[in-house]
Design goal:
two-stranded antiparallel sheet; 24 helices; 4% strand; binds zinc ion
């Protein structure tokens, strides 16, 4: 029997007619009306003063949760419209409308948070003790704690107002500065004028001269404007540090750790375990240098291909492969993915005007997800598809959970996705049709470890050190270059022949103002899911139920409690992290032994 899964997603079952949809128009108008009602309820809400107020709080939360679902449903749908066709102007207009509704909602949400924070301690304990609020104990405590960490309502609203131009404005200026940069690189004998993004894509070009030239031209461009970037970075950090100081926060990691619901000890244990185990990856980098015919590996050769993966899979074959591998893990994952393929939840067609990259988005009112990507037949496309299906499965696992208990943090967000990707990537290596193919697939896996353990570690080292120095004043560009080079030396454990001093200027993540320290949660998610994966390999098919229980709890406890409850592991200890790293070390060693004949 040949199956034929649709390659274009079905959005009409959500709102028929795309950006011209009457149903969507109606939904947005309803959202605005509902929001006014919600704002009125929030306005009339008073700080709870007795145990008997629990029901009033619960009613407001219920209204809030419905409002959230209503807004997410249209927000996610509009996101899909914009991704499938970047020329859809109407979708862009709807998106601005949706953003302003969300901003109104956010305002009301903050008011609720502050009212709850003002509740007397004894009343608070009684409110949560039993009755309708008990299920929300974790999130309510978190909201209250957050509000208490802040300054007064008046002061915080002043900071929010000033941050539009004094903080976020710098981040927008960064985007403008980068957008202005153009470099010329000779590719296949032809001189091309490229944007930063296009030139960055050449880092994995098969021609060594192209990789080197694009890197050098970019490095020159960053150097030329380094004072502008240094000013921008110093201003963002300065604003953040001044705000922290006023709030009485001494440690720049306090906010990112809080957002990720984890302890500093846990972070230290993770980096400690990684630092101790860098040698196998240094050996891999050296081997790669030799395979490329060089004495040491330069920064601009890290992404170079050592061999080409040639195996191609049609979309149908890719889908079948994923389903077969998921099936070996557990029936729920397989059945879920099968439904996603059959019901048109996936947009995979390779056609113009689609946005690059991939994502998965949840539509809470219809309890469905949609996956977006561009499938062109490589094994890495198959892995991406599995990754996004993993995200969708996380949402599916959370269905029995109240929507207020579904907001998981960035560090655990990548658990289900990396897990699903790992199932498929591992099977692909095992099923490789040739030695060449196997090397290419294996290298893909090792590259991920190098990115998470070395590159991201160097970003983290740079950022923590920069913040410390920034406390004492502006850090000039020349010093930023030094800090970056030192961090790369350390992050890559001396495994590279050359570093990238202006990396601090080139990496957008340092300039994101909405989330601080946009680095360590990636490494956390990768290693955390690897240890879940190790557990799955150990326990076999019976593990699926436990796995889903873990996913259901991702938004109602700290990272430490989650690991203790579901894995029986203490993640404040290095021993936990070393288990995941050991799996990655195996890949690096296998790569070295497979390629040893060639060097
Ligand atoms: Zn992801």
């Amino acid at each position: 029997m040949t199956v034929n899964y649709p390659e274009v997603w079905d959005l009409d079952t959500l709102f028929p007619g795309g950006s011209e949809s009457q149903e969507l128009r109606q939904h947005m108008d309803d959202a605005s009306t509902k929001l006014s009602g919600f704002e009125e309820s929030v306005h009339q809400f008073e700080v709870p003063s007795a145990k008997g107020d629990a029901q009033k709080v619960a009613d407001l939360l219920e209204q809030m949760s419905l409002m959230m679902k209503h807004l997410s449903q249209s927000g996610a749908f509009i996101g899909c419209l914009m991704a499938q066709n970047t020329q859809d102007k109407k979708a862009g207009i709807l998106d601005s409308e949706s953003s302003s509704l969300s901003a109104r909602f956010q305002d009301s949400f903050q008011k609720i948070q502050q009212d709850l924070a003002k509740t007397e301690e004894s009343v608070w304990a009684e409110l949560l003790d039993e009755g309708p609020l008990r299920d929300f104990t974790f999130v309510l405590n978190e909201w209250r704690e957050e509000a208490k960490m802040l300054l007064s309502e008046k002061e915080e609203s002043l900071i929010t107002a000033l941050s539009v131009d004094g903080y976020h404005g710098w981040s927008q200026l960064y985007d403008m500065l980068v957008g202005e940069i153009k470099v010329t690189v000779t590719v296949d004998g032809e001189e091309k004028t490229l944007s930063v993004g296009q030139a960055n894509n050449l880092s994995s070009h098969k021609d060594a001269a192209v990789r080197k030239e694009s890197y050098e031209k970019l490095e020159e461009a960053w150097a030329e404007k380094e004072e502008f970037f240094a000013k921008t970075l110093n201003s963002i950090a300065g604003f953040r540090l001044e705000t922290y100081k006023k709030r009485g926060w001494d440690n720049p990691l306090q906010e990112p750790l809080h957002i990720n619901r984890m302890k500093e000890e846990t972070l230290d244990a993770m980096w400690g375990a990684i630092s101790k185990n860098k040698q196998p990856f240094v050996a891999y980098l050296n081997q790669k240098g030799k395979l490329l015919g060089k004495d040491g590996l330069d920064w601009y050769d890290v992404d170079a291909p050592v061999t080409e993966s040639t195996q191609q899979f049609s979309y149908q074959e890719g889908a079948e492969f994923i389903l077969k591998q998921f099936g070996k893990f557990g029936p729920e994952l397989e059945q879920f993915a099968q439904q996603a393929f059959e019901k048109g939840w996936i947009e995979a067609e390779d056609r113009p005007n689609k946005r690059p990259g991939g994502f998965c988005t949840g539509l809470p009112l219809s309890e469905e997800s949609r996956i977006f990507m561009t499938y062109s037949g490589s094994m890495s496309n198959v892995a991406t598809l599995a990754h996004e299906l993993g995200h969708a499965f996380h949402t599916y696992a959370l269905r029995p959970v109240h929507s207020l208990n579904r907001s998981y943090a960035m560090n655990v967000a990548e658990t289900a996705s990396t897990f699903a990707e790992m199932i498929v990537a591992d099977a692909a290596v095992k099923n490789a049709q040739s030695r060449e193919e196997k090397i290419a697939l294996l290298e893909d896996k090792v590259q991920r470890s190098v990115a998470f353990f070395m590159n991201i570690h160097s970003r983290f080292l740079f950022e923590t050190r920069f913040y410390e120095e920034r406390k004492n004043g502006v850090v000039p560009a020349s010093r930023l270059n030094e800090l970056m080079e030192q961090a790369q030396e350390e992050g890559f454990a001396g495994g590279l022949a050359s570093t990238h001093p202006h990396f601090w200027a080139s990496k957008l993540h340092f300039y994101i103002t909405y989330v601080p320290f946009y680095n360590f949660p990636y490494t956390f998610g990768y290693l955390f899911s690897l240890s879940v994966y190790a557990k799955a390999l150990e326990e076999g098919t019976g593990f699926e139920e436990k796995y889903m229980a873990l996913l259901r709890d991702t938004a109602v406890m700290s990272a430490e409690d989650l690991a203790m409850k579901h894995l029986g592991e203490d993640i404040t200890q290095q021993a936990f992290w070393e288990k995941g790293i050991a799996l990655c070390v195996q890949d690096a060693e296998e790569f070295i032994s497979l390629t040893s004949a060639e060097v």
